[in-house]
Amino acid sequence: MKRLLFRIGLFTALLFLVTNCSSTKNKTTSVAFPKTDLDLDEEVYIPHLKSDRKNFFPETLAETRWVDSLYNQMTFNEKVGQLFMVAAYSNKDTIHTKAIEKLVCDYNIGGLIFFQGGPMRQARLTNNYQALSKVPLFIGIDAEWGLNMRIDSTFRYPFNMTLGAIKDLKLVEKVGTSMAKESKRMGVHFNFAPVLDINTNPKNPIIGYRSFGENKVSVTEHAIALMNGAQGQGIFSTGKHFPGHGDTATDSHSTLPVVNASLEHIEKIELYPYKRMFDEGLVSVMVAHLNVPSLEPREGYPTSVSYNVVTNLLKSELGFDGLIFTDALNMKGASNFRAPGDIDLEAFMAGNDILLFAENVPLAVEKICVAYQDGLISDARLAESVKKILRYKFKAGLNNYKPTEGINLYNDLNPKSNETLQYELYENAVTVVKNDGNILPIKNLNQKIAYVKLGDDTNSSFVTTLKKYTDVTEVSETNIDTLMSKLNDYETVIIGYHKLDKSWWKSPELTVSELQVIDSIASKKKVIIDCFAKPYSLSRILNFNEIPGVIVSYQNGNIAQEVSAELIFGAIGAKGFLPVSINSTLKAGVGITTQKLNRLGFATPESVGMSSEKLKQIDSYAQKAIDGKMAPGMQILVARKGKVIYQKSFGKQTYDGDVKVKNSDLYDVASLTKIVATLPNIMKVYDQKKVTFETTLEDMLPIFKGSNKQKITFKELLSHYGRMQSWIPFYKATLDSAKMPMEKYYRKIYSEGFTKRISDSLYLRDDYHDTIMKRIIESPLIDKKEYRYSDFTFIILKQYLEKVIGRNLDELVTNNFYKTLGMNNTLYNPLKKFDKSVIAPTEIDTYFRHDTIQGYVHDMEAAMENGVGGHAGIFSNAMDIAKMMQLYLQKGNYGGQQYFSEATFNDFNTCWFCAEGNRRGLGFDKPQISGGGPTCGCVSISSFGHTGFTGTMAWADPETDIVYVFLSNRTYPDSNLPNKLSKENIREDIQKVIQDAIIEK
Question: Is the pTM of this model over 0.85?
């Protein structure tokens, strides 16, 4: 299409007014818009010929026949009725319903635009109204971010401005497709979207979030993508608000906004998306109520009723022949100009096809009737709009109308795929706009990090997710001096600005006191600001020099918060770019990519090729275990491809208590200690070549020299193939005939020589470790060389590590692994850091300590080692255990740090004695070779893990890239009762569910 530049000289033609039924025939001049060359630095779009435009809904012979036949049968009033689309609500009373029914039956209105309500109610009303209508009704809705913009119990997609931050337009097209499927399911034909306004005015009170941004090309490309998705599903898109509502400072709902833009600006900027959209097949346009003097010289004349704008510009100059809607005629931008009835006539005379939200249809019909009788409206003009309406009704399938089915409606409107898409959208939208010194992502987890909240909305998902990566302390204080005092010991402070999404029409701004908080913290600490609101919110920060990290997350929903926390710690890299400018430096288009560290992230099962529906069966097995008194509660986690896709807690800490298990609670993980504390340090020592497979026990620990165990090799030791006994109940030798602790070995209070605390009021003598080791050294070997699981292995390895490294195991594993992995909830002797209330008890001990064991290790030998055993003693939660398992799955690498070599992991994950019937790797348990074993029998031979006496399991499978963690306190209240959790194969059955949930390798 030819380039054009609109210039209007002196407007000398007669102005016309249509005010009542007796109006005289109006005349208007056709304004010519001369063309001039545009600035060379502006992108110029040369429109296609109309014949070359994309057509989603080509005209057919059947369509023409249906339209002509129906039109010829219609009365004049029936034809006029088709021009009206009336507002309908599904949350109002029967008075409203009856009023709509009357308009349908008596005035033959052409359609309804639904506003607030619920899906089932709207579906029933739609079916009712359609059944009453002689000609099937158009159903429209403002669903700019999905049906949830108007209908409750439906899915909310991100706002356009959030989508505008996404570079991958295929994702935006997916949004259009998904929204269209939901609209179609509701019997909706028109979604009044996308918004094509270029939001060049940050103070715009009504567009803002609804715009894709301030760059005309980006706005257009995102709009085309959204339209392609929608119209590809047969749902009509409507570009709005013509000729451009982005550069306004007032709201057309309450007044008539003025756009003082020049013709050149309108040509270059505002009309750019429309030209391209028309060529891409946009089927309808909504005309705004605006005062644009450069297009309509008549003072205070709304564009929606301007013949110059609707007919001369939109239809003639731009060559648009799709459906043209007015914006809602009840808006003050229109209703203040003319009364109901008169405004409808003006709008139709201007060239609009459908009169949206008419306030008085009977009066408007009468006005149009009189205008027709007076010759102001011709048969051809009426036929143009009505036949166009009927043509699109045919394209919508209304020639073969089918009612909306209510069965399964809620599930159809909220498919699991939506949540998966939502994660993907925010992963691509969240934008890093400042990253001085590569503060993002936070690599060093061995530092003190605080979080300070600003804004008035919730932040729980953000804080919860931050804390899944490392210790992050939430600091709250209204007094700035006190706040700074509390932050004194922290190195990095994350400031979250949280504003309510539902207040999208408001312009969130940092308050003076909030700006003072930012300035004060930034002057003393390394600061990362994360804005969960419009980018404009940050514009009041005048100096970003002392703020090294700035993130814009756009919205404050749970997924936005979760994804943003992932970005901060590197589970994902930043991909988004600013759709609008914050200031003269942080301008639209800015977007810094950040490094992706291989830390665990969070996603839906479907995003990693698994079925969320299938995984629901885990809940049933968990409940079966609780109901069957197999365990009072548990934590279960599943991760795949580096993403946690299932994390739930079930039951209570005790059967008769009220404390429900939370994801953050700690469990005694029993023998998982072997692979989360001792083994990684042994692998590190092996990696440093301080020991080899053939190193003997006498070389590792000279105290074994001359014993029957001196020639056991490192490889045999770790494979449980050294003929050692399973265990010795060391504690029994310290009890008297009444099975009570002997005074020879114990004190009830901490005292000299008795400092090893094994319960609240019981301390063991310090030198008893020597007795334990002596008994191990002197213990007989089993007769036959075969696999025999033994706790001795890791008791010995603990002593070896402490001898070689010169530090205690608890200190060693914390410094070597836990601090840098972010395993801040994993430790020996948890009561030194955590309150007892967040630790699940393991037993009511009636045979040794005679106390409820809570916060003290259940294993007796480990308890006698001051709570620090090589084989037991670690307390943790499922999230932390998953980090260690992911480290193994990634062959020694996590968070961008290599802890030991890939070759070392491969050596330890090899079954060296499988040929002899021993399934074990080095330290790791492996799938059973035959018969029963630790797994479901459905995982790969390369998988590895361990189980624990207290009812725990951690397993990873390199072939499927899955980590599975199960923690419980099945030993409560009595560990001597039959192990029903094991006999019923609960852990293994859950593992089978996980395997069966794989839908994509």
Answer: yes
